[in-house]
Amino acid sequence: MDTENPYVLTKATVEEPPKSFFGKLKFLGPGFILSASIVGSGELIMTTQLGAKAGFVTLWVVLVSCLVKVAVQLEFGKHAINTGETSLAAFNKLPGLKLGRANWSVWLWLSLMVFKFFQVGGIVGGVAIILHMAFPALSIPLWAGISVVVVALLVFRGKYGLIEKLSIVMIGLFTVLTLISLMMLQKTDFALTWEAVSSGLQFKLPSSAVVVAIAAFGLTGVGGDEIMMYNYWLLEKGYASKTGPRDGSEAWVRRAKAWIRIMYMDALLAMVAYTIVTVAFYLLGAAILHGQGLVPESSEIIETLSRMYTDTLGMGAKNVFLVGAFVVLFSTLLSALAGWTRLFADAYTQVSKATFTDVKTRSRLIALLSWAIPFLWLILFLWFNSPAFMVIIGGVATSVILLLVVFAAFHFRFRRLEEDLRPSRFYDMTLFLSAAAIVAVGIYGIVKLF
Fold first, then answer.
1. Domain 43-449 adopts which CATH fold?
2. How would you write the pLDDT of the chain (450 residues) with one tens digit per residue?
3. First to last CA, the chain
4. Is 18 strand, coil or helix?
5. Those residues with Cβ within 8 angstroms of residue 143's Cβ, 6 or more apart along the chain or in another chain
6. How far is 79 from 260, CA to CA, in rounded Å?
7. Cα gap 307→123, rounded to integer Å
8. Counting beta carbons within 10 angstroms of the beta carbon of residue 103, is it exposed (0 to 12), middle (13 to 18) or buried (19 or more)?
9. Residue whose C-alpha is closest to residue 150's, from 360, 369, 366, 334
10. Quick check: 123 and 329 in contact, CB under 8 A?
11. What is the 3-state secondary structure (H, E, C) of 165-209?
12. Model pTM?
């Protein structure tokens, strides 16, 4: 029996879930890994750009985006613990047409992910611009090349765990700086007023901000692809393997419910953290950048974003901002690449005869993709050279992936979840409301766009 393969469930890996609060804290992490990928493109770039373009009026988009998608994320996580299936293996069991060996949903996901390459290519550009500002002797394209080589090496060599921990610490420090900047904002000419903030809670969406709002809705909070990544991190953390294969016993049901509750705790605490950060970023962008007619775009994107800190904390905060922004964006590259290598490796096994659960096959595919994917990001950045626009492209694609994810979540809940794990009516109501909000925002955006 393979006791070191988290993607294969055996009785040898079964472990009773912790009962104490601090014991449960040791198993938190999958949700916060997602936060590392969210903060870079969603919060730092997309949220502030929405605030800069629309002002306070679209604050509701950010709040809805952060709050409503977690129920769908929980359904994916529950399915992983219940079955041990990866996201794309589960997609391959969705109802509908199969093209070759793969379900239509797998092919649709692959086609949409083409546009996501633009998004992360924009993040590569952001990292390169920061490095060029700090060390101008090397050009932005050269820094971009160095960045993708380093991130590929870290994921290829399996050094992600250490970098992830360091990045989370630095993201935490950067978050503190952001909150301090927001508080200091009240001592400037850009001080927030309740009238301004409340105007963002009236569910209005200016036509000029529709595309950015749709992209922001896709990227803030957990996006469709992050929800899919969540299964892999849960599996690798051991949630499913410690629950063990379903054997029909009451002990299995008890373990499954306990690990699901810990998963709820992980996802909800992560949601609280990234919602606070997202709102802070948005308010800074709306108050400082919109108030001065500044929009973070093209090669000036990082310089413009730094104004949110220098205009409130003084010019001395710029270097601190650059360090924090670098860590946030670079950790996004790391977490995105770690997640993407698993997703695309899994996708390959769904359309071919290869097996993702085989350790050697999975390791070889992840190693190959850890080099191929970042160099595609690099090529797209060098071609387009417009980080903010590239992130918008990915954000719109993320919104469409989110609709696919909602469909899958409902299939998991109402077609594949056994009676012994059925949730409360309140949970189901929350899932329905979340799905309705996601679909409504998408339709509203399309109507306003055309």
1. Amino acid/polyamine transporter I (1.20.1740)
2. 344 788 999 999 899 999 999 899 888 888 888 877 776 655 677 788 888 888 899 899 889 888 888 999 999 999 999 999 999 999 999 999 999 999 999 999 999 999 999 999 999 998 999 999 989 999 999 999 999 999 999 888 765 566 567 667 777 777 788 888 888 888 888 899 999 999 999 888 777 777 777 777 776 777 788 899 999 999 998 999 999 999 989 999 999 999 999 999 999 998 888 888 888 888 988 999 888 888 776 667 888 888 888 888 888 888 888 888 888 888 888 888 999 999 999 999 999 999 999 999 999 999 999 999 999 999 999 998 888 788 888 877 887 888 899 999 999 999 999 999 999 999 999 999 989 988 887 676 556 555
3. 57
4. coil
5. 127, 128, 129, 131, 132, 135
6. 10
7. 19
8. buried
9. 334
10. yes
11. HHHHHHHHHHHHHHHHHHHHHHHCCCCCCHHHHHHHHCCCCCHHH
12. 0.88
Owner of token pair 């950010």: 62
> Residue for token digits 């595609």?
376
